[in-house]
Every structure is written in structure tokens, then in C-alpha cells.
Write a structure and sequence with these properties.
single chain; mainly alpha; 11 helices; globular
Length: about 290
């Protein structure tokens, strides 16, 4: 009697559909949170689309000139009250050395993109297991910055009313910024807070310092954001407090990535197995 009942129960259970691993909501989330090998075409498309969207949204934010100038005056006043209003002195000192300021103009215009893209390519090739998580940090940081541009319009020092800052691009007639000279109409003039030159450069610096194996390259990783800070201040494109805003956005980006993947991107396995089947563990190198 007991055996017959057990067999009947087994037959009934066999007739009930069982959830397929990975198709439930929990399984889907687990798959999305598991580092996977990046695909080149997808990454190229994603980065191009993301940057296009970033530029579109950033430039679509209304240029709230009155509020932006008022906020710039407030920041300048606060920096003066705490004795750290150094931007004007640095701007004038660097502007007196033509070759130096021209070099900084081109640094500001180019390395922001070149170095960031270079680090992404390096991650893709050498650290595929950490690529998606580290890219998530960068994308989240940039997304938060867009909200900052809308909520807190800010004029750069070179556009302040009654200010004595030198617009180094205009004075030296160099192509040094999308926010100055002939290209100024292609960029929102009042989106200085937070500074993504700092957000992106610190992301690059930390990534290189954490993952590079060559000591002098790791040192360069730390030097790059420090030099970028000098450049954005010397060219009068940002207050140093804009840099603080950029670092805060980056911190939020790291928090999101750590919450999603369960640990910091740099602690993930360096290499993802080429073909890993569900339920089958494969060795990974770190």
C-alpha cells in the first residue's frame, strides 16, 4: 500500500512542470550579476551609443545662465571664506607660460577621451572578467553627473561676472575645449558641476593602479588624475569643488557596482571561462 502510494505521488510530481534553472526571475538576476566575457561588437556599440546619449542629454539641459552665475559666485565666495580660493592664482601663473598653457589646453581637450577609451580597451583585452563591473562604475558615474548638470547649473570660472580669470583657449587661440572658442555652441556652457574630467580620470587612475603589474605604470595611474586637477583649474574650466563633485559621483558608481556584483570590480576574477555551463564549475585565474 505504501509503495503504491509513493509511486502514484512520483507520477503526479513528474507531471508537474519544474522551473528550468536560469529562467526564473532569481536565476536571471544571478546570470546578470555573474561576470561574463565581453563581446567586442556589443561593447563598441554600447560605448558609442552611451557617449552619444551623454552628449545629447548634457547639451539638452537648459543653459540656466542666471542660476549658473549665481552658483559660481557662491562657490567662489565659500572657497574664499575657507582660504582655498586658489583658482585665479593658478590660472594667471600658468597663463604666463605660453607653451605650458597651450599644452594644457590640448590636454584638456583630448586626454579626457583618449585615456578613458584606452583604459577600457586595456580592460577588455587583459581583464575581461572585471571589464563589465568596472565599465558599470564609469557609466553610473556619468549618469549621476547628468543629474548634477540639470539640478545645479554652474558657470566655470572663466565665465564669471566681473571675474579676472583668463579663458586660456580664447587668449591663446588654441583648440582646447568644446566649451570655449569656435566650438562653444556645441556644448552646454553651464555644466561644470560635477567635473567629469575628474570623475573619469580618477576612474582611470584607480583602475590602472589596482590592476597594472608594472610599478611605474601604477604610479602614472595616480599622477594622471592629479595632473588633470591642475589642468582643469589652470585653464579656468572648473573650480576645485567641481572636482570634489566628480569624486563623489565616482564613489556612487563604485557603490552601485559593488552592490550589484557583491564586491568591488577589482576583486572579481581576471579571466572568465570561455564556455561555462550552468552548474559546472570551471577554474578561473585571478
Amino acid at each position: 500500500m505504501g509503495d503504491a502510494t509513493a509511486r502514484t505521488r512520483e507520477r503526479l510530481q513528474d507531471g508537474v512542470p519544474h522551473p528550468v534553472p536560469g529562467t526564473t526571475g532569481q536565476g536571471l538576476v544571478r546570470r546578470l550579476r555573474t561576470p561574463r566575457r565581453p563581446r567586442l561588437r556589443f561593447e563598441i556599440l554600447l560605448i558609442a551609443l552611451s557617449y552619444w546619449t551623454y552628449s545629447l542629454v548634457r547639451n539638452a539641459v537648459p543653459e540656466q545662465r542666471t542660476a549658473a552665475l549665481r552658483n559660481a559666485d557662491w562657490i567662489w565666495r565659500v572657497e574664499g571664506q575657507i582660504g582655498l580660493a586658489v583658482e585665479e592664482s593658478v590660472n594667471h601663473a600658468v597663463n604666463s607660460v605660453t607653451w605650458l598653457v597651450v599644452g594644457m589646453n590640448y590636454y584638456y581637450a583630448t586626454l579626457h577621451f583618449v585615456v578613458t577609451l584606452g583604459v577600457l580597451v586595456w580592460l577588455y583585452r587583459s581583464h575581461p572578467g572585471r571589464y563589465a563591473a568596472t565599465r558599470l562604475v564609469l557609466f553610473t558615474t556619468t549618469g549621476v553627473a547628468l543629474a548634477g548638470y540639470y539640478l545645479y547649473p554652474l558657470a566655470p570660472p572663466r565665465l564669471m561676472n566681473g571675474g579676472h580669470f583668463v579663458d586660456t583657449v580664447m587668449v591663446h587661440r588654441t583648440w582646447g575645449s568644446m566649451a570655449s572658442g569656435d566650438l562653444k555652441n556645441m556644448s552646454n556652457q553651464y555644466a561644470a558641476m560635477p567635473s567629469m574630467h575628474i570623475g573619469w580620470s580618477v576612474w582611470c587612475g584607480l583602475t590602472v593602479f589596482a590592476l597594472a603589474s608594472v610599478p611605474w605604470v601604477r604610479v602614472l595611474g595616480l599622477v594622471y588624475p592629479a595632473l588633470t586637477l591642475v589642468v582643469i583649474v589652470a585653464t579656468a574650466n572648473h573650480f576645485w569643488l567641481d572636482a570634489v563633485g566628480g569624486v563623489l559621483c565616482l564613489g556612487f558608481g563604485f557603490a552601485v557596482a559593488a552592490a550589484w556584483y557583491g564586491r568591488l570590480p577589482y576583486a572579481l576574477p581576471r579571466v572568465v571561462p570561455v564556455a561555462a555551463r550552468p552548474g559546472v564549475s570551471s577554474p578561473t585565474r585571478t
